Amino acid sequence: MATENQTSAEYIQHHLQNLTFGQLPEGFERVDHHGKVVETLTDSAWTIAHNAAEAKAMGFWAFHLDTLGWSIFLGVIFLYLFRKAAIYATSGVPGALQNFVELMVEFVDTNVKDTFHGRNALIAPLALTIFVWVFLMNLMDLVPVDWLPLIATNIGIPYMKVVPTTDPNATIAMALAVFGLIIYYSIKVKGVGGFVSELTLHPFNHWSLIPFNFLLEFVGLLAKPVSLALRLFGNLYAGELIFILIALIPVWWAQWFLSVPWAIFHILIIVLQAFIFMMLTIVYLSMAHEDH
Amino acid sequence: MNLNATLIGQSLAFAIFVIFCMKYVWPPVMQALKQRQKKIADGLEAADRAKRDLELAQDKAGKQLREAKQQAADIIEQANKRSSQIIEEAKEQAKTEGERIKVAAQAEIEQEVNRAREALRAQVATLAIAGAEKILGVAVDEKAQSKLVDQLAAEL
Predict the structure, then answer these.
(1) How many whole angstroms separate alpha carbon A260 and alpha carbon B146?
(2) Do B1 and A71 touch (CB under 8 A)?
(3) Which helix (H) or strand (E) holds A250?
(4) I need a labelling partner for B4 at 20 to 30 A (CA). Which of A20, A69, A140, B14 fits?
(5) Contact B21 A129 (CB under 8 A)
């Protein structure tokens, strides 16, 4: 909902801006929303960015407090619930929580066993963590877009982007972790020589075609984390943007006719994206374990 | 959408979550699942075994019942046979006894007849002599005529 002193563009920008904490350089001129210079920094200072320009000026060493906060909060909820179920896990008649946790664990375990045929104690818990965590982060998308940012604004927090998976930092971080595991297991299972030969001697096993092979395989290898990260980010970012655009429609009853159907449809997307991220991770790691 | 150090923070958080999940969540849940699976499998197996045992017991009971029936039938048959045998024997015995009694009676009768005949014969001789005496009007010397009288008596 765009208020009187906020244009639609400002509203969208506000909703798409993370709460950034970082260091502003010396001599940086802080401005208010009318563009008037409020203060000029005499020293570099660690602070929260009050607009997109400030966030940009902070460079690489800045943190999105909302992304980190929400994702860690959701991760802790996930682990708290699952740990609680794990502690009280009994082989007898399970309670409701244990039932739910077992359902998730068995679902993930079945998928892992169907796809991954080696023995690796990491893959299944990794898949479970990815699935539940990504799902919970995606789930934040179903919280009406204005609630949490409005509360935050009223208690003095300038920005609040509540869906961590609409921040590429979150999705790329996970994709990079998976990429690291792909490299690690490729080298561990096949050896450095095996990994290098996989990159250079496929699909054409001839010395003269090594550069061509390498180009193909290297792009293929890099495409894995990139596609993982961007697929999740793109889907959720687009979904969030549509919620924001619907919220901008001035007719009040449009919320029900547009927001509700989109939210219902979005339930499918958030589960599906979490599932796809998990499945692709299993598949990529399974490929890393297989010798050609 | 700036790429910044959030990336590192998120990676760290992710790694910690995965390690926590791997160490403290996954193993106990999996263990509980496996234990329950084993329990259920054991229960099913026990049920199967009980069913088999029951079938076996029923078979055994049926067999014993059939055997008992067979035995009873055998005993009855034997008894029947024995009883008819006893009757036959009794009949046989009665017959021989009757025969024996009859033979004895006949022998006695014959003996009686013979005795009567002898007596008669003796008397006939006396009677004949007496008759002859009457007829002849003399005493017949019994000793002298005894040959004749004996002959007469023997012809009777």
Answers:
(1) 167
(2) no
(3) none
(4) A140
(5) yes
A-chain residues near B41 (CB < 8 A) = none
Domain assignment present for residue A110? The answer is: yes
Structural domain includes residue B97? yes
Residue A43 has pLDDT above 50, yes or no: yes
**Among positive and negative, which fits the CA dihedral A96, A97, A98, A103?**
positive
Is A237 within a domain? yes
Reported as a single tens digit per residue, the pLDDT across A53-86 is 888 888 888 999 999 999 999 999 999 999 999 9
Helix, strand counts (H, E) of chain A = 10, 5
In the predicted structure, residue B33 carries a pLDDT above the cut 70:
yes
Structure ipTM over 0.95, yes or no: no
CA–CA gap between residue A76 and residue B112 (Å, rounded): 138
**Residue A125's domain spans which residues?**
64-289
- Prior bond of A203 cis (ω within 30°): yes
Cβ distance of B11 and A177 shorter than 8 Å: yes
Do the domain assignments include residue A23? no
Active site residues of A: 227, 231, 235
Closest residue to A63, CB basis, from B9, B11, B32 = B9
pLDDT, residue B156, reads 66
**Encoded tokens for A30:** 């802080």
Q: How far apart are CA A32 and CA A50, in angstroms?
A: 8
For A25, which DSSP code? P
The percent of residues in chain B predicted with pLDDT above 90, rounded, is 69
